Amino acid sequence: MPPAGVEELLAGSCAGCSAPASIVLDSVQLLQSDSVGYNPVIVPRHLNGRIYWQRVTAPGPVITSFSPAGGPPGTVVRLHGTGFTSTSRVAFGNVTAAFSVMADSILDATAPASASTAPIQATNAFASGSSDSDFVQPPVVNSFVPAQAPTGHAVYLWGRELLHIRSVTFAGAAAAFAMRSDTSLAATVPAGASDGPIVVTNPGGTATTGTFHVGPVTAVGDPIGDGVSLGAAAPNPFAGSTRWTLSLPARTHVAGMILDARGARVTGLIDADWSAGRHSIVWEGRDTHGAHVRPGVYFLRIDAGSRSWRRTVIVLR
Fold this sequence. Notes:
Blueprint: E1 22-24, E2 28-29, E3 41-42, E4 50-52, E5 62-67, E6 76-82, E7 89-92, E8 95-97, E9 99-103, E10 106-110, E11 118-123, E12 128-135, E13 140-145, E14 148-149, E15 154-160, E16 167-170, E17 173-174, E18 177-181, E19 184-188, E20 196-202, E21 205-214, E22 222-225, E23 228-230, E24 242-248, E25 252-259, E26 265-274, E27 277-283, E28 296-304, E29 307-315
Parallel strand pairs: 14-21
Antiparallel strand pairs: 1-4, 2-3, 5-6, 6-10, 7-8, 7-11, 9-10, 11-12, 13-15, 15-19, 16-17, 16-20, 18-19, 20-21, 22-23, 23-24, 24-27, 25-26, 25-28, 28-29
């Protein structure tokens, strides 16, 4: 008999059991004969705290391929492999998906909402199997700069799912491009491009921007109001430091700060009364603690008297 407070589970022999039990546990005590004089407590969890009585653990599902290679939420994906019959869960990354077992070698799963580009995983009571490649979500482009540039000029696009891009076109003209991260992409305005959208394509789908204009990049100052003008950042994009020129017709209180893409304050640059004339505003790509900021899109906000302006700048590393 087990000691007081200890529950005895499946005592005795179970040779030939056709449906052995599995038990989720926190600890196990091994009860041996009195002649041994030692009943050790097994504390560490094994197999995520699950033990099997009179049973050899079976293999988990094996995913050898799937199609299509990507798509938006709701896409039905067919998995090929082995061991799907006892599948209890399918996930795209960490997001659980609805599925149907068609045969031991075929499983259909539906791409869930909110999933990111990631491998597909199938799980049964014994183990999990993952695909060798990612199921790719469609690209999303939230912004691009500059809005106008000539042939051969770099254009920077920002969004997400930008690491599996297959093509970029400017109004239908194929462009050279470089994938910088999951959230940024650089493309070169191609010969033959005209005004129109930029279309970015990956195995999961396409993203289409607003109208891009082919023409010279405007680098002259834009009026803020009352004779105040603010020049474009130079250089932009930049990796070291960049500079703006602010022109004032009279003594004016000027406040300037850098904001990130979400509009949160990164650092302050100026908060003082400036005399009439031309002034330089310099940012070295650092935050308020002096640390280098991450590459990405940032904004200079200037408040000059009763007027405000915001400039886009791109940090490279």
